[in-house]
Amino acid sequence: MKKSFLILFLLVFFSHKNLSAQEAVNIFPRSREVPKEVIYHESGKRYRLNEFKGNFVLLVFWSKKCAVCLKEFDDLNNFSNIVKNNGIKVVLVSPSTEWHSFGQTRRFMDRFGANDLDVYWDENGNLASALGVFSTPHNVLINKEGREIGRIRGGADWDKQEIIDYIYELKAKY
Question: Does residue 71 form part of some domain?
Fold first, then answer.
């Protein structure tokens, strides 16, 4: 019985197709103020989301226990490298409770292809809780004015041209 369940799980996992951003997106009728909770950068600096103003932010909540998160790291890294000079910033945030040190988080991210992305921690899940984020991956879209405009649930093939174009479209519109 256990073996059958494991085989079924593996079949579902490996056949899982990421949703396109458009299928999984929820754009709000009105933008929302972002919470003031702090996230910590691997440098030790504290950030609030409004400090990223001027950039369109893809705020990605992830966990080292989330297979979909790990699977999309390489795509997110590529996406970030494509868009970073065009006013779009990818901010990967992990719960601090999963780690012993930023070095451990960095090595983990590097191993899964996110070597160009910065490490951020959400202290005790305070920011995730303030945003009502209780599962991963969960992507929060923040416009250049520092206001939340929507969310994308689940994973995506971030470095596909249609998704890159869609994020540029959202950036221009909001």
Answer: yes
